[in-house]
Amino acid sequence: MAGPSNPAAPSTPPRPPLHAVLPPLVLGTATFNTQFVADPHSMPYRDIVARALSLGVNAFDTSPYYGPSETLLGTALDALMNPGPGPGPNPAVPLPRSGFFLVTKAGRVASTEFDYSPAWIRYSILRSLQRLHTPYLDLVYMHDVEFVSPAEVLAAVRELRRLRDEDGVVRYVGICGFPVDTLCSLAEMVYAETGEPLDAVLSYGHFTVQNRRLGVPWVDAEQEEGGGQGSPLARFKKAGVDVVLNASILGMGLLTSRGIPADPQAPDEGGDDAGPLVHWHPSPPELRVACKKLAELSAAAGERLESVAIRWSMAEWARLAAAAGLGVDIATPGVGPRKIGATVCGVTTIGELEETVTEWRGVLASLGQAVGRGDEVYGSARQEKVLSLVRNELWPALRSWLDYVWDSPGPGFVNTRREADRGTIPDDGVVAAYEKAKLGRRTVQSTAEPR
């Protein structure tokens, strides 16, 4: 599908299927947020974004719910798109907007506050455009869809598609959330009600070393055709979803060497020194203890749990999503495009970014993709070591906590956004600035037309 024909809409690239344009590795910036670090503004967010691009990671995922994440990511990208004069004789080459893929979300306002009304969705998108210094968004998800009614999700998806078709500020539309069954049901509902499938579904925390439910019953098996008609991947495929992405492969901090203290009040558990995660993470204490044991087993095998968890999830998802027909295209020398599962990874430091990219290159090498020197270290041999460690030691150690999930939303959840306030837009100049820019585009278009 071509870009918008509306002269008041910004110029956007053509719209081939999402699987043909979405990069397979996406840098998630939920970590640019006080939920993960005490002061996001002091973290090296500009360096992280620049280093990601230099390493070939050119897709970024954010949300207005992630505190200052959109603003920080937008600042970092804007500095690269509009570099000032450098100290040397050679000016920096500006990063073109076409040089990266930008993803955000809409609908979640706060931890217990949601507004999926069309008016709020439009406002949220226009605000994201400002914060991210971009004329268009490549992909927008409705954020954490399990917290609202199916009717609200449908209305919001329709509005995103209107913004796509009439305003040209959105290219692809999807949903994201935690319970896999809910994501499946909503994808089926959108397809049935509109006749158009979702471009993307983002699932988080459901294809990790600890929780494999997104891939069941494919996990650790060489099955084809979705592992049965009732499996999540088969349901997504039948609902016409183009791409399913896997996120939070470290379980939002559970699967790390540091782990998450079981009791944030206990002095020997680290207390506030353990970071913000200890207070908001929804995992029960027993699960935190079980995951801490995985770090010990990994260390005994000469590995860091982070590396094992990243490698297992990325590699297995690359395989399973491709087999289910829900992956993205990558070029294979001498063969042409092939499918591979897409993963979203969040980091807080350059070191974490480089570790993630190293493991990703190992995944590619194990799949027969040439990625340069060092393939023998990070290719099939280490892949087998990781798979064996997970299968033979980590999964048995988890026992009943393997594939455990917490409720989302939790018991007694109430949307604190009053129904009367939904669709109420702040008078902060966001909409007015957009309408002024749109009028300017319309004026320029009309004066350029032949008389």
From TrEMBL:
The keyword Signal does not apply. Residues 24-358 form the NADP-dependent oxidoreductase domain. Keywords: Oxidoreductase. One of its GO terms (cellular component) is cytosol. One of its GO terms (biological process) is dehydro-D-arabinono-1,4-lactone biosynthetic process. The lineage of its organism: Eukaryota, Fungi, Dikarya, Ascomycota, Pezizomycotina. It comes from the Eukaryota. GO terms for molecular function: D-arabinose 1-dehydrogenase [NAD(P)+] activity. Pfam families: Aldo_ket_red. This is Aldo/keto reductase family-domain-containing protein. Coiled coil: none annotated. InterPro entries: AKR, NAD(P)_OxRdtase_dom_sf, NADP_OxRdtase_dom. Gene3D superfamilies: NADP-dependent oxidoreductase domain.
